[in-house]
Design brief:
Blueprint: E1 6-11, E2 15-17, H1 32-45, E3 51-56, E4 59-64, H2 66-77, E5 89-94, H3 102-112, H4 118-132, H5 136-143, H6 147-154, H7 161-168, H8 174-179, H9 186-197, H10 205-213, E6 217-218, H11 222-233, E7 238-239, E8 248-249, H12 252-274, E9 278-281, E10 294-295, E11 299-300, H13 305-325, H14 332-353, E12 354-355, H15 358-363, E13 364-371, E14 374-382, H16 384-387, H17 391-401, H18 403-406, H19 413-432, H20 435-451, H21 481-491, H22 504-512, H23 516-528, H24 543-552, H25 564-567, H26 572-582, H27 586-592, H28 597-609, H29 617-625, H30 650-656
Parallel strand pairs: 2-4, 3-5, 9-13
Antiparallel strand pairs: 1-5, 3-4, 6-8, 7-8, 10-14, 11-12, 13-14
Helix pairs in contact: 1-2, 4-6, 5-6, 9-10, 11-12, 13-14, 19-21, 19-23, 20-23, 26-27, 26-28, 26-30, 27-30
Domain ParB-like N-terminal: 8-111
Coiled coil: 304-362
InterPro entries: Chromosome_partition/occlusion, HTH_ParB/Spo0J, ParB/Sulfiredoxin_sf, ParB_N
Amino acid sequence: MTQSFKPTTVAIGDLVAHPANVRTNSPETYASENIAHLKASIAVLGLLQPLLVQKIDGKFGVLAGGRRHAALLELAADKTVKGFTNRTKIDCRLVPDDCDVTTALSLAENITQAPMNAIDEFEAFARMMEIDGQTPETIAKTFGTTVAAVKGRLRYGLIHPDIRDAARAKSITLDTMKAFADHPSQEVQREVFEALTKEDNYVQAYTVRNALKSRGVQVSDDIGAFVRKDYEARGGAIAADLLDEHSVLEDSALVETILLEKLAAAAEEARAEIGFAWADAVIQYDYAAMADYGRVYPGPVEPDEKGRKRVDEITAELEKLEREMENEELEDAAYNELYDRVDELEAEARDLQEAYGAEDLARSGVIAAWSHGKISLHVGLVRPEDRVESAGKASGTSKDHGTADSDEITYPASLTEDLKTERAMALGAAMAMHPEATLDLTLFKLVTDVLTIGMGVTQAIKVDARQEYRTHAKMDEIDGTSLEQVAEAHDALDLSWGDDAKSPADQFALFRALDAGEKAKLVAYAAAATTQSCFARDRQRDSLMHDFEIEIMPDIRAHWTPNAALFNRFKKAWLLKILGEELGLAQEAVTLASSTKKQVVEFCDKLFAEPFATLTEAQRAAVASWCPPMMQTAGAEPVDASEAETPEDETKVAEAA
């Protein structure tokens, strides 16, 4: 790139820093310790690469080569170095005054040299868009990076200078500085920055983001995207960002007004369709505030002739879909499509065979709220003043439906067998991770099987040098925790004795030379591979393994985590029952009752993968310990979160399914 500019020579004393050099504001870049090696190289070999300069007020601004310039200045000032003074001329390339790519030229050369300060990159990319008219795509192509990486820097390129200076001075962290980019207005950034640092408090990124939320809504947020069209039509102010997705709707009151209007329209549509007496809208559904409200549910009705015919058609199609879903070679996408269709058909059949009573409709209503990026409808609610006169009837209605009993969790034989396999894998992982205890068990089993008469002390492990073959309907979808733990145990084994080129006698000699700890690991790993499909042991039938499992695997959740593969095999009603009654998440269960099974499965999968920060201690403990009852280690009682505060009683949660 530099070869296209006119060669020239310039005295060291006539060189100055160029304001367009993206390192100009980074004094740490030119600190003596950072250029010592460069200074030594130039002193011995001379300047190997010319500087890129441009005329500025009779001087020559260094556009690219600032570190070399700093090294030359130190050499000229060092009286012990010969051949370098302020009058010494060095090779340069002259950039014309009308060149409009100065920032790009400086950035390109600096990126290929020592790593740039992160803030310099933010500013440089932003300046390239503002001054040179570049786009994220052209910048990414120029510097061989991704558009996403460029956009990531552009987000921070226009943060208020005072905040960037604070980050350079390390009075705030880089993450804290980045948080200010959530609002594109530098004036808003400055006001929030001054307010948070007024008392010299330590400022954290999350406090910055929380403070900025009160100053507007990003257009990329779910609410911002939902109301933007109407917001713009009403002339709402927008703080524009370099990238549109980070622009902010500044009038929070107008955003809230539009959102409430949309929620009210959705509530009214549902009211008219079902026939409720009233409709209302709130931005956030407050379960505590709604605790005094009652709820009515649709009861069974006999469909007309057309409806009965349609129910029969749905039943036949559901049976067909269930057979298709049993195909183990089915791709995930096709499997999910079938699930969606099942949910759709079940909802249609339910609408044909269930309806609200006239009296219930006359006193109940619907509330629309904003939840998880979409409108959520809470139907069949009864206001406190309307609830008193019909409390007896409401209670009787709930009991008559018998939903809780019909939704009792039962485990099909196929799922039961697979869960036994998964528990055996978890037990094997625990055994491999406790080599001393497993070594004792293995030796005890071998000795007692030989020296005692009868069936032996336990049939739970096959210590006969044969690895147990395990079958599972969906082995590639199960939680991999136990497999990873066993793999780690294998990697830690000393297998130096097992050289195939050596004879068994030589291998045995090397094996005997291993220390006791290494032998224990080998025996434990081998014995772990013999564990048979199993559920929790009964103390009376197998006291040995009952106590042994409690010792090495007090909680199966250390080796196994419920995931979507398991939840997909549960009925939707079961999942809601587990959430509401066993995990203490009755609020969530009621809300999810109107969702598809796929959405409920996704919620459960995320919940168990990383328990939500909003959970209470009781709920968090319940999530951390939950597993199907027969998989829990015998004697270890799972945490019961049913006493956690909930907005609905257990019967209502079951009925919501």
